[in-house]
Amino acid sequence: MVDNASTDETREHLCALDGKDSRLHMIYNDQNLGFTVGCNMALRLAKNEFLVLLNPDAVPRAGWLEGIQAHFREDDIAAEGPTSNYADGLQFVPFHLPDFKSRPSFGELPAILKSLYAGQSLESKMLIGFCVMLRRSVLEQEGYLDEELFLGADDLELSWRLRQKGYRLLVARDVFVEHEGQVSFRRLPSEEKQRYLDDSTRILISKLEQHYGKGQVPSSIELFGTTILPFPEGYHEI
Question: What is the pTM of this model?
Fold first, then answer.
């Protein structure tokens, strides 16, 4: 568990757990090194083949972990994610419930999706980082989260990079994880958070321009299957 110089009660909470379970290893950073650096520190220390990034505002229910892992049937599958109420693209749960006239509760959705789509998945151009399972061997070979991106756009960059390397990304249609959204970094001052997000977006677009050529970057729809990447105003999308 990596504490990235928390300013709330997180560090005290972790210190109370320290030494009580041999599976827990605590790392206390003296400064906020950024979301991607903090995640990578934990990912590199993990020992299992399948690793999960899970935001603190995600609410998984029984069977979610095994449900996602069950879809890793081929070696070219690098990452998978669940459906959710607060997500984009193919992970948005209403996409999988087109005929429902009533609105099931979040507690009912896991059983409903499992009954409709047991064992089924969809290939996606992007996986949202609020809950994503990754294959450790792929990360070791292709690189972890891009540490130039202090906060934001890391899931877009990783999705794009893994697909460029020939790997597949899957959405597990039979798994639902509730996501409150916009909570993980609520304690950051809004201006500071927006600055980090804008900087990460600019860095990602610059990397895409290096790959495709300036002015030749495909649209967000073509890259990620959604308009999630906010191109700068006036940017020419092909």
Answer: 0.90
